[in-house]
Design goal:
By secondary structure, the protein is mainly beta. Helices cover 9% and strands 25% of the residues.
Length: 116
């Protein structure tokens, strides 16, 4: 499950078969077409369909067009990272080292000044 533009995709997530956890996101999904079927890979907009819920795997169902079909299942997927997210990740990974008197001891505590 790799592609030429690998940095555009998040890490590979093994699906648990409990419905679609990423509805509305663009994903690179890998799945089985049917029991003892071929493994396929496709880019798609994730929807809460039967392929994400393994209780329907191998059962006869109907497509959006009303055609009969055997239900497949998604076994792993990667979520697409848009350009802005990739740039943000790059910025965070390349932050300069901390300067100043912090000494790496963690954040400074604020102690309010009080007059007795």
């Amino acid at each position: 499950m790799t592609s030429p533009d690998d940095e555009k995709w998040g890490p590979v997530i093994e699906h648990d078969g409990m419905g679609c956890p990423c509805v509305g996101q663009w994903v690179l999904a890998q799945g089985l077409t049917q029991p003892n079927g071929e493994e396929i890979e496709a880019e798609l907009m994730a929807q809460d369909t039967a392929e994400w819920d393994w209780t329907y795997f191998g059962k006869i169902g109907f497509s959006e067009r009303g055609n009969r079909r055997i239900c497949g299942k998604v076994i792993r997927y990667r979520i697409w990272r848009n350009r802005a997210l990739r740039e943000l990740i790059h910025m965070v990974e390349n932050l300069p080292a901390r300067k100043g008197g912090g000494g790496g001891a963690g954040p400074r505590r604020f102690v309010p000044w009080c007059k007795d």
